[in-house]
Amino acid sequence: MIALRLHKTVLTFLLACLALGSAAAEDHTINIAYPKAPVTAGYKMGEARNPDGTTLALDSNSLLLNGKPWTPVMGEFHFSRYPANEWREELLKMKAGGIDIVSTYVFWIHHEEIEGQFDWSGSRDLRRFVRNCQDAGLKVFVRCGPWDHGEVRNGGFPDWLVNKGWKLRSNDPDYLSRVKILYEEIARQLDGLFWKNGGPIIGIQFENEYKGSVEHLLTLKRMGREAGLDAPIYTRTGWDQPGGQMPFGELVPLYGVYAEGFWDRKLVPMPAGYWKGFQFSKFRVDDATYAGLPGEGGTLDPADVGQYPYLTCEIGGGMMNSYHRRILVNPKDAESTALVKLGSGSTLLGYYMYHGGVNPDGKLTTLMESQDTGYWNDLPVKNYDFQAPLGQYGQIRGQYHLLRRLHLFLHEWGPDLAGMPATIPDQRPHGQTDFETLRWSVRSDGKSGFVFVNNYQRLQIMPPKNEVQFTIQLPSSSITFPEKAITIPSGACLVWPFNLNLGKGVRLRWATAQPLTMIDEGNVRTVFFAETKGVPAEFAFEKNRTSIEAPTGQLTQNDCIELLRDVKPGTKVAARARSADGGLVQVVLLDQETSLGIWKASLDGRDR
């Protein structure tokens, strides 16, 4: 009897274990609401219309090109840090990498190192650089200071200005008199190249990382406009808040994030709040500069922040090295933080740096930042490589292709994404050492959308997330996928769609693969996906609306969907979906490596 009772006890324990093992997957549920109508009025920008009638403006969701959402990609490239005779080739590399806008600092000390002697020649030729951008089909944001930083001597101020004894970065009349001359010089270089003239310049940034008075920023804007710096978008960096109340609509704040920074005084890896850049958050300010928890908000986000589109200008494409802190960047650092910003609601991915360079020769001094001049860091005299996607000699790094793949997605589905606010789940990581909670978000318009997942963090081995299944509670329906729970691998960064309209009358209910891009040939559309390595690729099509042919994989059905599973990646068509009206959509699933080699460009009048 004792043995029998013991056997019953063991049996009960084993059955309990089996019950736990076969229980329903951990259900990651999120509630989605219909988005609010965007704010469209109150922006005090420059001329929005160019000579052919094309308009460029903004609302609280995104930039607007001809009144329609535009979600471009921006990359920083400092013209005065690169040989002028190589600009064109490097700009074409940037465009091929998915860049739409080139942003560039105009460093005062590079152009007026000797008081009263402006130098716009050679690699300092701003006008020639902007024309090269236009020839390459790229738009331009000019970050015209007068203080820029950019790891340049005195933050870009010439020594003669620093030695005047004036109160710099303020409304000191003497200082402003010299800023006026600088702005007039810049405007002269850019004459006829603004959007209103049919040129590529669409944005002007005033100052940089500014904590002084609002009145000074507004003064700089007024002076810039008076000098002729007339652009559809006026911006400022948004992670440092100026003192006082900034009137709404004057300057659009742009944000950023870095995986790690050379400027930190601590020598241990990943100090401060850098880990927060790898977690989804509605808080726009880079959490490495603010001690708040992701998603909790804080005083550095102004009350009207939601009335501006979520634009970025400084997602770390790499990281510079200083003498006291030398950081080795992993290409996935840039991919992960960019994906997190996108999943957190951004509609402009802007990288600093996207292209590295070399400091030019100074006439009086070396031009790099140094502690001898009262600044924070000692930087190399010449090197400004930044370990960027494109290096100081134009070399291509791993993140170039990782980011280019993400840019393909944004160019294709970005306009839809602009109307999809980010929703962060209630259950999210509760602190720096929580590596077990899944990091994910959803962007949705209440009908369709995308799930973003990041299971990567710099210098941290993230554990796989087991038994993952998502439930998206939409206002009028619910969707749970995948059909069976899966494991999110360590290091995975992914975007999966739900209720995705593929066109031609075909709707994809969900997929466990990342959409990349698509092309049309006649009445046939081919949509390319990338596998999520380590996760079985499945495609669920709405039943009774399409007929599915699967050259590879297996088709099963239930009441709602036709499910294509066991799809093997390759360059051949994995599925054909034909709608009732005869439209045909082909699905191609690429493996991870091949997906990094897909390019899209227009040639002879059509996309290829």
Task: Please characterize this protein's 3D structure.
Helix content is 19%, strand content 27%. By secondary structure, it is α/β, with parallel strands linked by helices. Helix 8 (331-343) links the parallel strand 11 and strand 12. Helix 6 crosses helix 7 (214-227) and helix 8 runs parallel beside helix 9. The longest helix has 21 residues, at 398-418.
How would you summarize the topology of this molecule?
Elements: H1 2-21, E1 26-31, E2 56-58, E3 63-65, E4 68-70, E5 73-77, H2 87-96, E6 101-105, H3 108-111, H4 126-135, E7 139-143, H5 159-162, H6 173-189, E8 201-205, H7 214-227, E9 233-237, E10 252-257, E11 311-316, H8 331-343, E12 349-355, E13 357-358, E14 383-384, H9 398-418, E15 422-423, E16 440-444, E17 449-454, E18 465-473, E19 478-488, E20 493-503, E21 506-511, E22 513-521, E23 524-531, E24 539-542, E25 546-549, E26 554-557, E27 561-565, E28 573-579, E29 584-590, H10 592-595, E30 602-603, E31 606-607
Parallel strand pairs: 1-18, 5-6, 5-12, 6-7, 7-8, 8-9, 9-10, 10-11, 11-12, 23-29
Antiparallel strand pairs: 2-3, 3-4, 13-14, 15-16, 16-17, 17-20, 18-19, 20-21, 21-24, 22-23, 24-27, 25-28, 26-27, 28-29, 30-31
Helix pairs in contact: 6-7, 8-9
